[in-house]
Amino acid sequence: MNISIIDKKDAKITVENSVIKIDDAKLPLRLVDVLLIMSSVTFDSKELLKITDAGVNIVLFSNYSQKSTIISSTSAKNSELKMKQYLALQKNLQIAKYLIEEKIKRHAYQLSLNQITLEANAYIEKVKSVTSHEELLGIEGSFAREYFKLYFDLIPSQFHKHIRTKQPPQDPANALLSYFYSMIYNIITVKLISFGFESSIGYLHKPFRDHHALSSDIMELFRDQINQFVVELFREKELLSMEDFTKKGGVYLTFDGKKKLYQHVKDLVQGLDFKINSELTNLKEML
């Protein structure tokens, strides 16, 4: 699945002869599965229909907040897979255990890359023996608290308050974590739709209003890589400063701050693309 990112401000997007035109640049529709639009662009409804009719899903990201919009064709896709998802709810605890066990292993490994040891085996043994989602979520919560106590030591102290905060984030480190979690969550959602999954049917997370529960399930397998990505951004000298963040009901990355990170964002998205596809294939086999 090919992801293309458009980050040119005020670009005009049109479609002509199965080619997406971004101002003077050209992108064949057949080479695109997901179009990520990271800046303000202009295109009309006819162009949107041409793009989605070709099977391309679009994600629009706001310049000034964590909000995003997914634009997709209304055509039904892979109804048999959706039925398998419903039937697999009978073994949701088994799938949820897999997700949390993998999350624990991967987070412990991410810390080990930075010469920090977190003993994961005790948590994994507890996961194997739980008999309810409530127990499982309790273990996950305990692990997350221990993990973040160690994790924030990897980031310069002026950028964080040594605790995970969200809705809203309270410091630059948490602002970046939330920003990239939100971005990858939306990419996963689009991929689920493209594969034919029903994104609201989760096995670890429960459906709630507009929540894509399955997207949150799959996200658990990639938070460690996003966390390491954020560490590396702060380690890169003179890349980020306090001026790249704004305080408006919380701490958020500014538009200029996002512009600084565009190439890094592309690297992150491209690096996770194949891995996300592999996990979705694996999930299909588990159902």
Describe this structure in words.
It is a single chain. This protein is of the alpha/beta class and 287 residues long. It has helices spanning 45-53, 79-88, 92-112, 121-129, 133-151, 172-195, 213-219, 223-235, 255-260, 262-286, and strands at residues 3-6, 11-16, 19-22, 25-28, 34-37, 41-42, 57-61, 68-71, 245-247, 251-253. The protein has a four-stranded mixed β-sheet, sandwiched between helices. The protein has a four-stranded mixed β-sheet with strand order 4-3-2-6. The chain has a two-stranded antiparallel sheet with strand order 9-10. Helix 3 packs antiparallel against helix 4 (121-129), helix 3 packs parallel to helix 8 and helix 6 (172-195) crosses helix 7. The two termini are 21 Å apart. The model has no long low-confidence stretch (mean pLDDT 90).
Question: Strand arrangement, largest sheet?
Answer: 1-5-7-8
Number of strands: 10
Largest sheet: number of strands, sense, barrel closure: 4 strands, mixed
Binned strand content: 5-15%
Distance between the termini: 21 Å
Order of helices and strands: EEEEEEHEEHHHHHHHEEHH
Query: What is the average per-residue confidence, as pLDDT, rounded to a whole number?
Result: 90
Low-confidence stretches: none
The count of helical stretches stands at 10
Shape: globular
Query: In terms of structural class, how would the helical and strand content be classed?
Result: alpha/beta
Rg calculated over all Cα atoms: 20 Å
- Helix share of residues? 40-55%
